[in-house]
Design a protein that fits this description.
single chain, 497 residues, alpha+beta, OB fold (Dihydrolipoamide Acetyltransferase, E2P), 2 domains, 8-stranded mixed sheet, 5-stranded mixed β-barrel, 24% strand, disordered C terminus
């Protein structure tokens, strides 16, 4: 097999020759009347009406294979809807066009016009009466039998990955369908889709380190949002009682199979609803989306059978630590004993000032990986839930839940804190945490406090990680498989790579 550099050099020489012969390598204005899907539909619906001369189909696509026989050739071409075969004959398209065709390569884009016929094997094929070069590719595609398999190259050159790997194209087609189904779900329930600022003077709505930028005209620092939450709740204050946003968030954190610094979230808020209402809504949403895109609410994710239908298990945070984490109940409020358990089990705890921080870190390590079937974990401590409403039964806990499926967090929701005095105090405690070195703690947001002082009705809100949901519904092991252009470490000398 020739080296890529040798093939590239031959391609460049061929391009130079075509230019000398005044061939337009990049023409524009070619009108396509039929996609591959349209042609296949005509075959499926009325094959008896099809012939070599009529009806005429005008289509276009990238050549993925060429099988030449001298004065004729079979090619396979692909457009956005699928792949089809065409037969190119010198006596049909003419000497000049066929001479041009012989100088084309796999990867070039061609326009084709002609009727249909069946080969001896019964395959429907387009018999070209016209062939036009639409774009000459300089670089050769990867070798067809091995394709593009190196993960790093696949992520860096997603365009090649999409060309060569049908399963990758299917993931991103399904991702689009998932988002559209989510949008339809909320619109049908009288939610309003909105857009909130991606650059914010105060980053809020989550515990995370933001990306910082500077606005020259305003002369002020701005932050890429870590969450749209506080702006969406301002809209509820303003009377938009049901809102949702499918949004891009940015968090200056590590990159892993589950994390990307730029990611997609669904956030929605519903007035006159509680955390329990949203748990039921979430069950409906995920099951409906799964049925719409996969045909079933049951799936196999990385070898594990998961049932998304019906009522999901609900378990309090402390009960989960006791039942699944193996921690004795009387240890769960003793910070020193919890820290010792963490040390004994090799759980690294950096924020040791609050019992709630230690509890949730232990949960992340000891319990979360065991939550394979859909499970709502409820009753989070107030000290780790600065935007959540306190429980009427126990003010140390909040009306908050997190959803876990396949051993990872999918959603976070709660009844919203709408008491401005309590919210101000929670923000104050967060500011103290920042001053003590917790860079992810919330900042004081006085404008948001003022909004609450105008009155926010009883409200519940939730965020769902779109990327992780897509991973689940497409059986993708890594978040990089469901993000078209995941962030990667800079490769020396290559801008943007």
């Amino acid at each position: 097999m020739e080296k890529t550099s040798d093939l590239l050099q031959k391609r460049k020489e061929k391009i130079d020759e075509l230019k000398r012969n005044q061939v337009n390598l990049f023409p524009n204005g070619y009108i396509v009347s039929h996609t591959v899907r349209d042609i296949q539909a005509a075959v499926d619906e009325s094959p008896e009406t099809l012939g070599e001369d009529e009806p005429v189909f005008v289509t276009a696509g990238r050549m993925m294979a060429i099988n030449s026989f001298g004065k004729s050739a079979f090619i396979r071409f692909r457009d956005r809807t699928g792949q089809f075969q065409a037969y190119i004959r010198k006596d049909r398209i003419g000497d000049e066009a066929y001479q041009l065709f012989k100088q084309l390569d796999i990867g070039d884009f061609v326009g084709l016009k002609g009727g249909l016929f069946q080969t001896r094997t019964g395959e429907w094929t387009l018999l070209a009466r016209e062939l036009n070069l639409l774009c000459k590719a300089t670089r050769p595609l990867p070798e067809k039998f091995h394709g593009l398999r190196d993960p790093e190259k696949r992520y860096r050159q997603r365009y090649v990955d999409l060309m060569m790997n049908a399963d990758v194209r299917e993931i991103f087609l399904k991702r689009s369908q998932i988002i559209q189904q989510i949008r339809n779900f909320f619109i049908q329930r009288d939610f309003l889709e909105v857009e909130t600022p991606m650059m914010q003077p105060i980053p809020g709505g989550a515990e995370a380190t933001p990306f910082k930028t500077y606005h020259n005209a305003l002369g002020m620092d701005l932050f890429l949002r870590i969450a749209p939450e506080l702006y969406l709740k301002r809209l509820v204050v303003g009377g938009l009682e049901r809102v949702f946003e499918i949004n891009r968030n940015f968090r200056n954190e590590g990159v892993s199979t589950q994390h990307n610094p730029e990611f997609t979230m669904l956030e929605f808020y519903q007035a006159y609803a509680t955390d329990k209402d949203l748990m039921e809504l979430t069950e409906q949403l995920v099951a409906e989306v799964a049925r719409a895109v996969n045909g079933s609410a049951s799936l196999n994710y990385q070898g594990q059978d998961i049932d998304l239908s019906g009522k999901w298990r609900r378990l309090t945070l402390f009960a989960a630590l006791e039942e699944l984490g193996g921690i004795q109940p009387d240890y769960l409020k003793d910070k020193e004993k919890l820290l010792k358990i963490a040390a004994d089990k090799g759980v690294q705890v950096t924020k040791t000032g609050q019992v709630g921080k230690v509890v949730t870190k232990l949960f992340d390590t000891l319990v979360e990986p065991k939550l394979i079937q859909p499970t709502f974990i409820t009753d989070y401590p107030a000290e780790v839930s600065p935007l959540s409403r306190r429980s009427d039964q126990n003010p140390d806990l909040t009306e908050r839940f997190e959803l876990f499926i396949a051993g990872r967090e999918i959603a976070n929701g709660f009844s919203e804190l709408n008491d401005p005095v309590d919210q101000h105090e929670r923000f104050r405690q967060q500011v103290e945490g920042r001053q003590a070195g917790d860079e992810e703690a919330h900042r004081m947001d006085n404008d948001y406090i003022e909004a609450l002082e105008y009155g926010m009705p009883p409200t519940a809100g939730e965020g769902i990680g779109i990327d992780r949901l897509v991973m689940l519904l497409t059986n993708a092991a890594s978040i990089r498989e469901v993000i078209l252009f995941p962030h990667m470490k800079h490769r020396g000398g290559v801008t943007g790579a």
